[in-house]
Design a protein that fits this description.
Helices cover about 15% and strands about 30% of the residues. The longest helix has 16 residues. The protein is built from 2 helices and 21 strands. By secondary structure, the chain is an alpha/beta fold. A hairpin with an 8-residue loop joins strand 10 and strand 11.
């Protein structure tokens, strides 16, 4: 017999993933997610077609932009994002899988932590137990299998460091130069909550 709590969670997931998450009203999605997710930070927007597996374990920070078609797997472990995080279309954040060497196909997973001002590209996949440091960039289509250092730019499968994120600063003559590596120079705040998508 199914536990009442598991049943209620399945109904909430179905309601959002099949109906509310595909309804062209940002306000409706926001109301649903505020009641279902672990947290939805102020001015965060979740576009249509995103799916959440156990929303109670998903904690989205302030001013996040979650583009269409993303998957958040909070089945057993949590997903936590900082502020001003941009997650590209159809990205997948996983917290649970199976041990390929287990004779009994045992579960294996861990929490995923995404720092402030992280930018995750289109169709990137973040695997269980990974932490992505503040200001890091994950290239489109990348598969993140291990922790990413703050301000690192990673890409590929598996994702490897290909650069470092440092803000260009405007100087008096109109040209730009690379900012101080210690200060980094990132001060933007995201605020994109589309009405329909």
């Amino acid at each position: 017999m199914m536990n009442a709590r598991i049943f209620a969670g399945a109904v909430l997931a179905y309601g959002y993933n099949q109906w509310a998450g595909n309804f062209p009203s940002r306000r409706l999605r926001e109301v649903y997610l505020r009641g279902w997710l672990g947290s939805l930070g102020a001015k965060s927007g979740v576009q249509m077609g995103c799916r959440f597996l156990n929303g109670r374990k998903v904690f989205l920070g302030k001013r996040n932009v979650i583009n269409f078609g993303c998957l958040f797997d909070g089945r057993k472990f949590s997903i936590r994002t900082g502020s001003n995080v941009s997650i590209g279309p159809e990205a997948t954040i996983l917290t649970l899988g199976h041990d390929p060497r287990s004779a009994t196909f045992e579960d294996r997973g861990g929490d995923v932590v995404i720092g402030d001002r992280v930018w995750i590209g289109y169709r990137a996949i973040v695997l269980p137990g990974v932490s992505i440091g503040e200001g890091a960039v994950v290239g489109a289509g990348s598969v993140v299998t291990k922790n990413v250092d703050p301000y690192a730019i990673v890409a590929g499968n598996p994702a490897r460091k290909i650069g470092e994120r440092v803000a260009a600063q405007e100087i008096e003559d109109g040209t730009s130069q690379i900012g101080d590596r210690e200060k980094r120079g990132f001060e933007y705040e995201l605020d994109y909550r589309s009405w329909l998508v």
